[in-house]
Structures are given as C-alpha cells and as structure tokens.
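Practice problem. Given the sequence and the SMILES for fe (ii) ion, write out the predicted structure.
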Amino acid sequence: MTTESPGHRNTAYRNFEVAPISGALGAEVQGVDLSQKLADETVEDLRAALLDHLVIFFREQSLTPQQQIDFSRQFGELEEHDFVKGTEEHPEIIRILKEADEKGMNFGGVWHSDVTHQKSPALGSVLYAVEVPPFGGDTLFANQYVAYETLSSGMREMLDGLTAIHTAEGPFGPHGRSLTNWRNMDVETSEKALEQTEHPVVRTHPETGRKGLFINGTFTVRFKNMTRRESMPLLRFLLKHASREAFTCRFRWARGSVAFWDNRSVMHYALNDYTGHRREMLRVTISGDRPY
Ligand SMILES: [Fe+2]
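Answer key:
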C-alpha cells in the first residue's frame, strides 16, 4: 500500500509490500529478510523504495555485522567514519552506544544529515538496533524536499544562489564536545575537523532530480561570504523550518529494527529521552556524490 502525497511516490514493487508511517516520509518494508542474499530485482526495488519514501524501515531482522555490510554494499561503496573508529573486526561499522549511566548529549541528538563535513557526503546510512531502551530513543526524520518546496518563491530564489560552509569542528575538533560525551564510543577528535567544505544550500538530488534543502544543525557553521553573526538568524530559521512537525516521521525502534535513510534528502534527529537505559546501534555508511 502506498499513498500519493508530497512525501511519497508510488512505485509497484515486485517482491515486498511497503506501508508509509507518516504523510511526510518514511515507510516500513514488509517481506524482506536482509540476512539473505537478495534477488537483483529486490535490490533494485529497495533502491526505488528509498527514493520514493526517503527512509525505509525493516522489522525483526537478525543480522551479523557481516550481513549488515553485505546488504549495504549492494547500494554503494562503504566508508569508514573520519572521527569515529569502526569496530575491530569491521572498520566500516560504527557502534553508537549510550550506557544506562551516561548523562549529557547523545550521538546524533541534533537535526542533521551524516558527514556533510566531507566533500562528498554519504548517500545513506543503514542503522541496526542491537539493544533498545524500554521506551524512548526514537529517531525523527524530516523530508527536505518538502521543506524546500514550502518556502516562498522569494526565499527559494535567494537560497538557490547560496553556499554553506560545513565543518566537523563542533563535535570532532580539538575542543569538540566529544571530549566530554559519548564516552563509550571510539571518537577521535583532531585538527582535521577544522577543515571547511562548501555545499550548496539547495541540493539537486542526483537520482530524482528534485531539489531539497541541504543544511545541517551539526556541521553548517555559516554561509559563504557572510560572517557567522550574519548567517545565524537565517540558519536558525532554516533549521526550524526544515524540521517542522508536518515534514517529519518518528520511528520507534525495537531490537532487530533497521532504518535505511537517504542522506541526500532527509535530516534526522536521535531523541535523548532514555536516561537510565542502554541503547546500542550499529551503523554502516554508504558513500555518496558531491552535492550540486
Ligand atoms: Fe546521524
């Protein structure tokens, strides 16, 4: 079942069903076991489902790290994180872990897309739930096509010509927040995080051709040829607009759930409302193209 709405496209899939979870974006895929070798047409249709719904979810999966890698590799090359070390056996997999006794900020608790400090940020990420709290720890996703399309023509025109400066300095620079947070994750802060990258504020999706907002609450620090002080009011407005309730969906995790999001058309936000409980996820990141 699919629904025609600004957030979803309709495609007939051959080997599985999809059920949208909100009007804005996001759909559960039913009838695919990710631990098995998938038929080419299933992989092709999953890619279509990702483009149609922006983030797709799978329930009750049971994946070894190698199976998570094998599944993800069918959608592109995998990459290692610049600042979070992968697991010993699988450098492409990072463990996102918050222990029950950890307080303070969680990993991903800001509206963002992944690794936009890179010249070619990720196509997408595949996140697998190993252990989830009894309540809380949901992830929110926001449709950035609709965020762009609902702006006024004057604002869209101005943003079309604007370039943003992205850097990983905030979380991963020498004075990064990671010095005091994420103590159970293998995060390395470094001078390398001070590098700046330019991206268009409005990005054309390389596969759908649709334009979307491409700003980031973690990595966008200002607009090109503007000071930070000049940039912040507009950036704050855009982040608030881009995460308006009507543009979002909210995913409730269970052990074995998988989320696969298109990092080029959504932002996401990891809620930090489960202090006193442990949450462990494994993430694989698929390489993407240079935004234009
Ligand atoms: Fe993220």
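Check your answer against the key. The chain has a mean pLDDT of 94.
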